């Protein structure tokens, strides 16, 4: 999950960088929380203090720029819901420009300098040997969480399963 590693990655006990679902970021300052409840409480406190631009979840969806992304704040921290919204947003960026490299950059920022640097970080994680990785763009977000073969993901203590045609369900211990 290259996008998620860039957005919310942190090393686990074995030193492997994995996406962390209970992550927030404000003004470039990321914070990792031990539980969904702690992350939700932190966001509510920030919002009560007037902060509006807050990135949330494993794919760091911005609440100011995507106010209708989730039904509730709690849903924003559901790894499957967060990844699904990110995949839809990435697909919309691609549909707009018909260019996956630009879509990955624009996921982070429409500012060329910021977006380009982000795209290079994502691509370096996604395919470190430098081979072309844009042939199957659906893998850029959601498919990395739920591989087609097993439809199963295990990251940051979260287990997600889905049946074909159904929304994935996740449980985080």
Major sheet attributes: 4 strands, antiparallel
| Number of DSSP-assigned strands | 9
Helix segment tally: 7
User: How far apart, in Å, are the first and last alpha carbons?
Assistant: 20 Å
The residue-averaged pLDDT reads 81
Class per helix and strand makeup: alpha+beta
Strand content: 15-25%
What is the CA-atom radius of gyration, in angstroms? 15 Å
Fraction of residues in H or I helices: 40-55%
The total tally of domains equals: 1
H-E string: HEEEEHEEHHHHHEEE
Shape: globular
Structure description:
It is globular, with a radius of gyration of 15 Å. The protein is built from seven helices and nine strands, in the order H-E-E-E-E-H-E-E-H-H-H-H-H-E-E-E. The protein has a four-stranded antiparallel β-sheet with strand order 4-3-5-6. Strands 7-8-9 form a three-stranded antiparallel β-sheet, with no helix packed on it. The protein has a two-stranded antiparallel ribbon with strand order 1-2. The two termini are about 20 Å apart. It has one domain. Helix content is about 40%, strand content about 15%. Helix 1 packs across helix 6, helix 4 crosses helix 5 and helix 5 packs across helix 6. The C terminus is likely disordered.
